[in-house]
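User: Structure tokens for both sequences below?

Assistant:
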Amino acid sequence: MPTRRTFLGLTVGATLALAAPGTASAALPGHPTGPAPAAGPGTTYYLDSESGSDTANGTTPTTPWRTLTRANQHTFLPGDTLRFAAGRTWTGQFAPRGSGTAAAPVTATSYGTGRKPVIAGNATVPSAVLLHNLSHWTLDGLEVTNGTGGTTWRTGVEVRAKDIGPVPGITLRNLHVHGTDGIAQVGKGNIGSAGILVNVRGNTTPTYFTGMRIENNEIADTKAYGITTWSTWMRREGWNELWGELNIPATEYGPFTPSTGLVIRDNYVHDVGSGGINPNQVADTLIEYNTVARPTSTTTNVGIWWSGADRTTVQFNEVYGARYGGRGLDCTAFDADASSHDSLIQYNYSHDNGGGFFISVSLGTAPASAVIRHNISQFDGNEIFTFSTNTDGVDIYHNTVYVAPAPTSARPLHKIAQVYHNPKNVTFRNNLIVNQAKLPYDTAGITYRNNLYAGGPVPPDPAAVTGAPKLTAPGTATSRTDLTGYVPLSGSAAIGAAVAVPGNGGRDILGAVLRTPGDIGAVQSAAGSLPAPTATTTLGTGQGSIAAVVDGSEATSWGSADPAVLPGTVTVDHHTARTVHSVTLATHFGQGQGFTRVDVQTWDGSAWTTRLTDAAVTWNSNTATVERRTLALPAPVTASRVRLVVKAANTQWGNVALNELTVS
């Protein structure tokens, strides 16, 4: 074990932390100098397309295999690793065999120095990489292409399962997937083609993915979708078949059986013909910290949308540059689509999208319901909010909408709120709407209350606020991490004018604690903020400060005394009672120093009460990339203090560490 550790900082955007950002302590957290961590169980195989030989044993860098054919012939065992030589290219399809286990996944990654190894389908195969009926597999650090400019639909990475039951443990990370063929023609799209395609076929054995991770990838220049998932196990609420371009026979569809626990985070999806990120037939999906740029170049699709989906959380994403396709034809940033229930869209930044910010649409008997809060829409076009078929139960509060003073040819402007096909139970509360184009509002099925209207007509709102918003520098945001131009200044009509909304998330888009009474809009003013939370620990401090875990920045962290003596506690005090739904741990180098088993306790005023016992926390990497793990309480609890009892942790370097502890 190294005697000294060098700690590296990592700059990240807004975090899900209940803290007004303050002065950050030195970035900390870590990773040791010296040799790389030892490989886990299993055998490591090597592949070099120039110096390898398929008659070699493949088990050392000096005796690598040469071809994808040889790698595809091998059946990998739990804990095995296949390493592709950096700077090399393989043509054809990588379609491995053999699965790993939860404790010992199979990994395909790289070795050596230079650019990422390339797997080039060259439009000779439907998918350049195919994981078929495999579990506990990780693809990490590869470049994948599949095109030569043809019009046949192609896919980069495909993960497919059929009639085998639950499929756990697939992770796709640090991939660069680009250049997949298809029809680059307006109106043409195919959800069976994508940079990353996850699909389930069959109807004899209910099949679904569990705990899949798609993270830190770049997907670009695909003629169809960026990232998409779908399943033939989808029938419910009058929706009985998927899209016609899939050519799946009607007899193949089965009852709704969603993939669960999918996480799509920290991806950069850009310049794609159709949708950017699109999970379907899923439950409890988390879509966060992604950037989707210039989607829908050839279709009327959406930046991020989901269907056949329960309890989808979409947060901290930036979507921009979707083209204008026409009125009522999508091209929005976000869309809760067919058979979507209990969606949560929060802390996102949408701008310069030709179709608008959000659309809700469903079919059959499947109402699309959602909460939309703490988001900013800047210079979106068309219909900023659209409510279409079977929308029922969409609650929109604490958002800021900034509409350009005049339409452009790329982004015509029509309405702030557009109604199609009689939605029900849509509410607008505490939203700040700067309507420089003086757009109208539809009212059928919509209740407006206590919104601030700056410019243009005012819809029927018995508590309308019409004073000057006095924002710092509206319309100047350049990215999701540059939103301070929407902070209300002294004298703003937004300050202190919000009505109470129970369970409102507790913080604004910049991380400031929401006050009571709060401010209208997605961003709070600086005046009168509540006390910042404080943190304490019984684990001692070896590096940094425990204050770093509540400073609102994932770029700072705390490290315990070395060695860490477990069990120990980390306590966050908010100084005022609040409703607690969950806690989120943010850590980098999690496999080296992250918590792995904790109790979650709350203070009831006289004693600590355990709300979660022996909650398991699993980290996927041992790098400077920050990972987040959310532990949901069985039921909301009102408390001023939350405590983690750390029972077990990864202690590769003796200590344990944490970047941020969020209470939501």
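Moving on to the next sequence.
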Amino acid sequence: MPHSTSSNPIVATFGSYFHGRVLRRLAVYLALMLSVVWSLVAMEQARFDQLAEIGSKNNVQNLSRAFAEEVRATLAVVDLSLVQLRGTWQRDQADFGKAVADHARYLRDRVPMRIAVTDGAGRLASTGAATARAGLMLGDLPQFSIHRGRGDDLLAVGGPEHCRITGRPALQLTRPIRDGAGRLSGVIAASVPPAYFLRFYDSIDLGPNTTVSLVREDGTVVARNTQGGRNLDMGRKLTGAPFLLTDAASGAFRRASQLDGIERFYAWRRLPEYGLVVTVGQAVQDARARYAQQRAVMNSAGVTVSVVLALLGWAAIGAADRRRRALKALAAAEARWKLALNAAGDGVWDCDVTTGMATLSPSAQRILDSEHAEISWFGNKGIAELLHPDEIEAIRAALGAHISGATPDYVYQHRIRLRNGEWRWMEARGTVVERGERGEPLRMVGTFSDIDARKQEEERMRRMAHEDALTGLPNRALLEERLRQAILAAQREGHKVGLIYFDLDKFKPVNDTHGHAVGDRLLRMVAARVRGALRASDTLARVGGDEFVVLLPRCAQAADAERVAVTILAQLEQPFRDGDLALHISGSLGYALYPDCGGDGEALLRCADLAMYDAKAHGRNRVSGSYRTTVA
């Protein structure tokens, strides 16, 4: 097509853009540029899949650890109850029913379980209730008969199966009862509903197809929960699962479920002392759904960039024969357009580097809280005077790196002082668009972005991740991190680490009588009072409803931890004033020491928790350190 010679100014101006040579070059340009753009889009989409997988694996691994600890703690409480009730049965069978009732009352908010005792022949002797079906034969069940062939005193875990006493599904935990000569004289058992372990599912949110499971080491499903139903697959047997093919303590894998066919990212942890494995799985599609919006934005960005590149390329190719000055102006205008496109709604600035004066758009004035559309980049009453003192040197270094050509753009996030004296977070971007003959910068254009809300949200999320929302104390996650650091320091320096686990006696009656608002205020008062009784180096954390943990990072001996625990108990026994109310509570406290009681943070927490329940079992309002032997 020949160049247009029309007298019409529009045709004369734009006719050259449809010349055959321009269109051929445009076709080559688009073939190259669009392949690059959509390759980058494809790479970003693949990166989102990778991020989804990494995030999902981290989530399920953390949750499997928490689920395992919850199951382990539950079974430990049941085992402790069996040991204590066995002692009661052997000492005074007439008092056994009262002891069972006391345990049921102590543990009603923690572990629902039923107790049964058989004689040596396997006949039901007692359930601790007046309605016990005495004489019912249970000795043929695996969880009872296993103790006939063993001479030890170990806990046996059986099930899942339908309990003959209640007729309901149950996980059976049993211990032998032996006479003075070591002969088997009976078995004491606790039946726990498998569905009880699935309450952990209600505290997580990884998507509609998330699943948590409790599985025996032979692959039998003890309990499993999904959005579709609770424990529908109890008793089914898994084959070929990775955790069945290894002796490792934990692991992760990705596969389609044998039970419902959904592909998931799984993490598992073994409980070898109980012959159980816990698993947590997040569906692949649920993990990827978290990035659905980013995928859509990326596709839209690909389309937008493609269109923009096509238009810009067409314009650049069509104007290739224009004069050098016009090309230079076009390059500057293109740089401004690209910055404005990438930061729509942000403030634009244009700086004459030789004079140091920057022209601000209305949005830039608003972000800087400036009364003037033109402001000095340096000097008195310039932007430099508004910068936060802690960030000035880093800003100068970043700006100098770009001006010297070491970086393609200037990008930095920093704070700027407003006229009312407050600080606002902003992100500054800029590019040198014009240089002199010796390469010296003459002109820079860029944008200011108000990121204060984002920074505040990031800080809020950081606090939420590490602080208890009600009391402001460290939460379990922060406690575990500090405990890990304390143990590392103790390993280096050779001292001990103390841990005190306690909860509040008579707290539930306060909630029931005066309401949860009073209960919440009481928890805050407890936190403040106990925190005031500790050293600055100690950590007080809230890990449950009315459960707290005190970390003593440096102890010389067990007496140090006991002395702190006694001080805390004394603080709890003092009345708490809430307006006209005088609230009276107490506490049950258990303490443990590293390395005396456990070789890592999980074992130490578990040991202190068991010691606390020992304090409860012996009447509450006391301190116990009875679990001083090592917990693996």
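User: Anything stand out in the second?

Assistant: Confidence is low (pLDDT under 50) at residues 1-6.
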